[in-house]
Structure prediction request, 686 residues.
Amino acid sequence: MARGRAGDSGAPTMRDVAAHAGVSAMTVSRVLKADPGVSRSTRDRVTAAVDALGYRRNENARSLRLGGGTGLIGLVVTNLANPFYSRLALGVQEIVAARGLRVLLSNTGGHAEREHELVTDLTAHRVDGLIVVPAGSGHRHLAPAVLHDTPVVLASRPPAGIDVDCVLVDDFGGAEDGTRQLLSDGHRRIGFLGDSQADYTGAERFRGYWAAHEAAGLQPDERHVRRGLADVAAAQRAALALLSGPDAPTALFCTNNRMSHGAIRAVHALGRPVALSGFDDFELSDVIGLPLTIVSYDADEIGRRAARMLLDRIDSRGTGEPQPSRRTVVPTRVIRYGPPPGT
Amino acid sequence: MARGRAGDSGAPTMRDVAAHAGVSAMTVSRVLKADPGVSRSTRDRVTAAVDALGYRRNENARSLRLGGGTGLIGLVVTNLANPFYSRLALGVQEIVAARGLRVLLSNTGGHAEREHELVTDLTAHRVDGLIVVPAGSGHRHLAPAVLHDTPVVLASRPPAGIDVDCVLVDDFGGAEDGTRQLLSDGHRRIGFLGDSQADYTGAERFRGYWAAHEAAGLQPDERHVRRGLADVAAAQRAALALLSGPDAPTALFCTNNRMSHGAIRAVHALGRPVALSGFDDFELSDVIGLPLTIVSYDADEIGRRAARMLLDRIDSRGTGEPQPSRRTVVPTRVIRYGPPPGT
DNA sequence: CTGTTAGCGCCTTCAA
DNA sequence: TTGAAGGCGCTAACAG
Prediction:
């Protein structure tokens, strides 16, 4: 014998419904899938039993039997507290829910090992696909071979050493645009505040900052470049130091919202007007009263595109030849707030 | 015969591993659960086969067989784009992940029917528990009887007509504290900006606003009360109207971050200093340059407490007598920013 | 120490 | 129109 059930969760099974309706389990199954080959009276009796017992079909058992997929999409982000990622998650939700799928959400806190664990865990739950904002630079655990061809889409960062779809932001172009604005406003000493040097996004934005200078026949002063700033406080300190030093920059470029916030605090504390440019718009940016040149983009759209790409992959699995991997880039746009600088 | 497999997802099964290692599936199962009763050499052979095939145990099949729970927690929020809810989700994640459970996240967009669907759907996936921020005032679909005793914890709003655990914010006390501050600063005409009249949270905060006046022997001017403001723009318009009218209030109380943002915009546009008090702190509130009296609380903590309560319930299921439902209230604190008002 | 049997809840196939 | 058999991937109980 093989009993050994532990929970016996109290939820009725299909056989409970069958017994209640005086039919076989098979008939219940047919009614639930709206199979036409069931008589009206039987159908009504089964439906009544379902309502009486509050029966819900067990989706896990169903997908096990059918083998066609669990209806679950794994989403792995680095930090849900950052509005950027929560918007991304919302975008994914939107597209995925419209297809009747559900999102299994995980937060890595930026730890690559944790990401590895989570991805492994999600595949153990047989998700139909994965959307990942990679925490580290090693992506081997996301390789199609490792995941047994579970479709994967990366968001924000391109794949490294593996061949999968991804959705990126125009980091380089956006940084270039923002910096060019500052230059055309007449600024010639533009500081740079960036976070982790290992981050792809930050590196691209730094490249854009540098390229804008070169395109204008200029070169940034290396002493005005501060990278590896871990949080708002670090950015604030770095900004204060830059702005208080000799040949202080007249403007600062910030790679993301945390850097911008630090810079805004520093400028506010200083009481002297300094032009700021940086990635990520935020509510009330127009009320701050500082000359801001914001590089903005639609975070929801990243999630939506990633979800659509993933659904495409899921739909076309086993359909003839394997499709080449795709890459899409979400555009940025520059928004200006506050008093016109350079006057 | 009963074939009919659809996907055949390509993922190896336990029997594939067994065949590869030249043992039975049972032995593989034992190795995977670290059962001591397996010889060293067999264990090594199985481990090698697992690695070679990249095998991952199918958690769905496992939980079906064990019957003890799926390791999934359902989380249903109204709007993930609101930082409040994303922090809450993060708090839930934190506690739940530490126990090796995963979060199935859903967004209702504030629609009660959608919530109903989602809850039904989550139970069909046999989640071990549910944390819900209710969208509507009807909670019958969350009743223990309907959910077959799947544990439920409500967040932000108390249960209506059902008996389940909940985590609340001290809406009344917080609003009272914030309003009292404005009163003790000397304000005697304090406007009120609130959203949906049907919302529990908003109603409690309105009560607090009113009670603070009564405690001071005063009564708010009804003409200065604006409720049912759907978004930031509506709040901004209402604030402008109030502040431009006759006997304009010298201060405004705002029930949440959207109301506050609208008010800040209005005051900013007006160019005249108006004291503001409202719920929900935000980044850069200290840089706005307005006299702000913020009622703040820890949104992560709501998620953490809800998750802990839920885990408690899950742990104590079937353990003797049913526990009475619990309720916990997260405290608020008042933070003051900007120039001291009333001078 | 290892294999066989049986069945979790469901559904496809075949038989009645 | 309905039921019986069998098995998806896994593991508890019982052999051997």
